[in-house]
Write a structure and sequence with these properties.
heterodimer; A: 287 residues; alpha+beta; 6-stranded antiparallel β-sheet; 14 strands; 38% strand; B: alpha+beta; 4-stranded antiparallel β-sheet; two-stranded antiparallel sheet
């Protein structure tokens, strides 16, 4: 026990030590609070999300414009003019709107994708009349991309009707259409199918059945390497109708020139990101 | 000096040093947004992600149905089943059998469409939301309220999606079916601004707080 005579300013030193301890504790706690504030600030960099959302909106709006153009105009050059006017209108509105968020957005048509509309509008076999010879196995299109491929089979005389899609890499997917079953055979021979009632008309590119349910087996279209070949096999075993739009020329009972899609240039400037890209927009094309 | 006075002085100085240290620590405390009652950054970022992903899941048909859920023949024209004094939905109210949802019991979501049901399911209990429809006029951008449930609080986030409306798009009836009247034949809140088949571009803005 230290006597009062030999204290050596213990009280002063004790006070200073206590003060240092309090300051150190304060620094530690401050650091913890500040770190959590800093962590919250940098947590999610959202600057790139807005470009993705903008692209999705553009695909939807301009895709609607393409559908609209082919619905209201019958000649290809009128469809092209119409879609260019629609894109110009959308571009003007978008740049005004984005400008209020300090973003410069410029959208313009790069080129139109002109193709053909192939259809069998009256019920018949899925055969092709090649200068007088009726062929039940024929190629509808070579090196094409297709959108809005709709098939309505109303009668079958066999189970072997197939639509074969062969991708650019040589892999073939076979769609076998029967009365109440849709079978898809992939290049390795594996079979997936959808069954039910009221299957037709089937939207092959959209993977939708006539009873408004999805057929996941038809999702293979997203995996086929474009451009692909479309072949009909045993077309004499079914009767019905079909329609499709391809991006070049092909064969079929009725063919007319039609706008397939459009490529647009997108320029996007904001304080955090500069972005240029070209979008290929074809509504109903499997992506 | 006397020893006693020295000891007293020493005690007082020690006490002062401790007091100054405590004062210094209190002065140096970090100020965070919560100090003034605002929400912190993490909450805001989470809300932003939730709002964006919710808006992305709405299909275009559902969005179009809500944008065109306009009663063009009422006077003054407004969205279906809104109160007489407003043209928009001022919160959850009993719109009766209005809307294309078979919702039993509780009041329908706002707006009483599939889009409203999605918003209600995602935000209904924890957050509030407003929906504005921005459209273009010769004088610039105008906004039509679709849902207004109050002034957004601090920490609100805004997400938007754009939709193209064409001349032959039809307004919807209260049950969601097509009315047979196109936008350019009716008293619609937005006007035709283009010579082409494009009518206008509507930006759907959802504010969540």
């Amino acid at each position: 026990m230290v006597t009062t005579d030999e204290r050596g300013q213990m009280l002063l030193i004790g006070g200073v030590l206590l003060a240092v301890a309090i300051v150190a504790l304060g620094i530690v706690f401050n650091g913890a609070v500040y770190t959590s504030v800093l962590a919250g600030q940098g947590q999610h960099d959202l600057s790139a999300d807005s470009t993705i959302e903008l692209q999705q909106d553009l695909r939807q709006m301009i895709g609607d414009g393409v559908r609209h153009a082919v619905r209201t105009e019958s000649k290809l050059n009128n469809q092209q003019d119409e879609v260019e006017n629609v894109v110009a209108g959308i571009a003007a509105n978008l740049s005004t709107y984005e400008a209020q968020s300090n973003r410069l957005v410029n959208v313009s048509v790069n080129a139109t994708i002109d193709g053909e509309y192939i259809a069998q509008n009256s019920t018949g076999n899925f055969t092709y009349n090649d200068s007088g010879t009726i062929k039940e196995n024929w190629t509808m299109g070579s090196d094409v991309r297709v959108r809005d491929f709709s098939v309505n089979v109303t009668g079958t005389s066999g189970d072997d009707f197939e639509i074969r899609i062969t991708g650019d890499d040589g892999e073939t997917y076979t769609i076998n259409l029967r009365n109440s079953t849709v079978r898809v055979i992939d290049p390795s021979g594996h079979v997936t199918s959808c069954s039910g009632t009221d299957l037709y008309p089937i939207d092959l590119t959209g993977a939708m059945l006539g009873n408004e349910s999805r057929c996941n087996a038809l999702d293979f279209f997203e995996r086929v390497e474009p451009p692909y070949d479309i072949e009909i096999v045993n077309g004499d075993q079914v009767t019905g109708k079909y329609t499709l739009t391809i991006d070049t020329s092909g064969k079929g009972p009725t063919i007319e020139d039609r706008l397939y899609g459009v490529t647009v240039d997108l320029i996007y400037h904001s304080p955090s990101i500069d972005y240029n890209t070209t979008l290929r927009i074809a509504p109903g094309e499997p992506t | 000096m006397n020893r006693g006075q020295l000891y007293t002085l020493e005690g007082v100085v020690a006490g002062l040093v401790v007091l100054l240290a405590v004062l210094f620590v209190f002065q140096a405390t970090s100020v965070t947004p919560q100090t003034v009652g605002a929400t912190n950054q993490e909450d805001v970022a989470q809300k932003q992600v939730l709002a964006e992903s919710t808006l992305q899941t709405v299909s275009d048909e559902q969005l179009e149905e809500s944008v065109l859920f306009w009663n063009g023949s009422a006077s003054p024209s407004s969205f279906h089943c809104t109160p007489n004094v407003t043209s928009f939905y001022p919160g959850r109210l009993d719109t009766g059998s209005c809307g294309n949802l078979s919702v039993s019991g509780s009041p329908p979501p706002v707006p009483p469409t599939e889009f409203g049901a999605i918003l209600e399911a995602q935000f209904g209990t924890k957050y509030s939301y407003n929906v504005y429809l921005a459209y273009h006029t010769d004088a610039g951008l105008e906004r039509q309220r679709l849902v207004y449930q109050g002034e957004p609080g601090s920490g609100s986030v805004t997400v938007d999606r754009s939709l193209a409306i064409f001349d032959d798009d039809e307004l919807r009836n209260a049950d969601g079916t097509h009315s047979g009247h196109t936008v350019n034949q009716s008293q619609f809140y937005a006007h035709d601004r283009h010579g082409s088949d494009l009518y206008n571009v509507i930006h759907v803005e959802v504010v969540v707080w």
